[in-house]
Amino acid sequence: MTNPYKSYLSIGEKLDKSKFILATFHLQSENQPPARNASASDAGGFDQTAGGVAAESSVGTWTDVSLQEKILWENLRGRVVELDEKASIIRIAYPLELFEPGNIPQFLSSIAGNVFGLSEVSALRLMDIELPEVYVRSFPGPFLGIDGIRKITGISDRPFLGSIIKPKLGLSAQEHIAASMEVYDSGIDLVKDDENLTSQTFNNFYTRVDEGTKRMKEAGYLKEGRQKIYAYNITASYEEMLKRAEYVVDRGGNCLMMDVLTAGFASVCGIRNRNFGKIIHAHRAMHAAFTRSKQYGISMLVIAKLARLAGVDSLHTGLLPAVFTRDTCLTW
């Protein structure tokens, strides 16, 4: 029996990119054992493993399935359209029909799901994705974007300057907002909660919002067209996030912060789809678990693209290397 994985190779196939999602992977397949009952010519190899990734992330499996009609397989199979064994790079084209519009969890379950557990794979990293316009338009995208943020702040000719209050945990709501006001008074444009400041006993979320919006209004920092930004971290269960988002809006706040990876892309889409009209700022806490290795995981570029689809207006990227490594600070 020949190995069916090689049937997913379509090197050089000409594609209508409006009908496919393209994914670029770093792939290593060292010491790969030959497939069971495979002939010598089919016993392992980089191209076979590349085909395995395409199969597992689309319509394939590890054995023949009698119910899988040829026409169905041909229309829906992932195709390895580029393969560079020396550079350990493959590019897979997925028919758009494989994906539910507006559903990031289903997207990730497909191209970044079981493939990382394939026995043939010794290293795999999803490096980039290319999405056709029809798929992109099935998502909400940012409500404001950079142009909208510049409009509400009145800043059009320079970068925004932001600050995070330290210590990140331990201050009361009053102490935290008092420090924020000093930062604003010094000329900073944005203050954000840190990723693990939500609603602890020492700093209740609702008290922090009350104190923050009150003090900012008194100082004139929420005037139309000249606003300072405060990003309140609403991360929690979805029901509680919705409650917190509505509270920020009711009190006149202008920014909802979410830990997008720990809260989940579906939660981000859910908040964005409520059309609150406020900035959604994304913190990428936990990203290095996926992005730090150059051999395994998912690149920050992919996460950033998905965050934009979900509706994020601004994304936390970190400073230049100081506490964190260069590659975990920057979005590539």
Q: Which residues form runs of ≥5 with pLDDT under 50?
A: 33-43, 328-332
Extended strand count: 11
Cα(first) to Cα(last) distance is 42 Å
The biggest beta sheet is recorded as:
6 strands, parallel
Structure description:
By secondary structure, the chain is of the alpha/beta class. The chain is built from 13 helices and 11 strands. A 6-stranded parallel sheet has the order 5-6-7-8-9-11. The protein has a 5-stranded mixed sheet with strand order 2-3-1-4-10. Helix 6 (173-185) packs parallel to helix 7 and helix 10 (265-272) packs parallel to helix 12. The longest helix has 14 residues, at 205-218. It is elongated. The protein starts with 19 loop residues before the first strand and ends with a helix. Residues 33-43 and 328-332 have low confidence and may be disordered.
Brief overview:
The protein is elongated and about 70 Å long. It has helices at 46-56, 70-76, 104-111, 133-136, 145-153, 173-185, 205-218, 238-250, 260-263, 265-272, 288-291, 300-310, 326-329, and strands at 20-28, 79-84, 89-95, 123-130, 162-164, 190-192, 229-233, 255-259, 279-283, 297-298, 314-315. It is α/β, with parallel strands linked by helices and 332 residues long.
Task: List descriptors.
single chain, alpha/beta, Alpha-Beta Plaits, TIM Barrel, 11 strands, elongated, disordered C terminus
